[in-house]
């Protein structure tokens, strides 16, 4: 993760220096591009897409791009392609990816379709890897930011940020304690949400993550769960609510 953060920071500094000084660090017609998953400034090695978190139909996963040059004076299109993984087990499609004149960075979706009955990846996670499709006007940029790896799931599984979280986010164990499937199900039941991320510092990086929780919201969910656990215990002759390992479900 550290190398990805450093790469992005270097690019930001270079672009800023270019804009301020007017020096031509880049060829104005250069069309190399970086693509990545994660936030706009912090790439992740891979991200999860969980089919159990969506109803039958279509959902999307967002990726980011950045030209390694000045903004172009004309529109330019690019395409993605799947290169390996469980390609034949997933219904996915791409949108029309057009970088408008004057723009050099942004975000686009990859679409995933879920049939009415879909049982793939329930017992074992899958994977898909995408890259820039060769042959177009846009060329691949830095090697480390040239592919998109998606981990495919279809059931309740430990969230990516439970043990370790990226910069500006808090690990979920800090708010929810030890992980278990039973506790995870209770969190979904009491919060009405399936995606859990907690922002610890508001800034330009996290502003675009409108689905993440604040620390106060995470604590409010914990309070609801604690209340439910007390009610359960009272209704079951003092017997606590237990997880799949017969451990009592507790929160910090």
Automatic annotation (TrEMBL):
Family matches, as InterPro entries: DUF4843
Pfam families linked to this entry: DUF4843
Domain of life: Bacteria
Protein name as it appears in the record: DUF4843 domain-containing protein
Originating organism: Sphingobacterium alkalisoli
């Amino acid at each position: 993760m550290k190398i990805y953060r450093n790469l992005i920071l270097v690019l930001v500094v270079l672009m800023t220096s270019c804009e301020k000084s007017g020096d031509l660090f880049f060829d104005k017609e250069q069309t190399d591009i970086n693509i990545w998953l994660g936030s706009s400034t912090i790439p992740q090695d891979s991200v999860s897409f969980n089919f159990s978190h969506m109803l039958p139909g279509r959902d999307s996963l967002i990726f980011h791009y950045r030209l390694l040059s000045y903004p172009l004076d004309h529109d330019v299109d690019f395409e993605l392609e799947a290169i390996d993984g469980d390609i034949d087990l997933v219904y996915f499609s791409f949108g029309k990816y057009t970088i408008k004149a004057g723009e050099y960075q942004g975000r686009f979706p990859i679409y995933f379709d879920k049939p009415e009955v879909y049982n793939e990846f329930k017992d074992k996670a899958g994977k898909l890897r995408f890259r820039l499709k060769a042959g177009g006007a846009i060329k691949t940029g830095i090697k480390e930011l040239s592919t998109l790896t998606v981990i495919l799931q279809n059931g309740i599984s430990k969230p990516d940020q439970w043990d370790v979280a990226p910069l500006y986010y808090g690990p979920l164990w800090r708010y929810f304690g030890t992980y278990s499937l039973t506790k995870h199900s209770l969190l979904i039941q009491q919060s009405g949400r399936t995606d859990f991320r907690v922002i610890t510092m508001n800034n330009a990086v996290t502003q675009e993550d409108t689905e993440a929780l604040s620390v106060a919201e995470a604590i409010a969910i914990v309070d609801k769960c604690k209340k439910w656990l007390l009610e359960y215990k009272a209704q079951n002759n003092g017997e606590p609510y237990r997880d799949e390992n017969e451990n009592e479900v507790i929160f910090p």
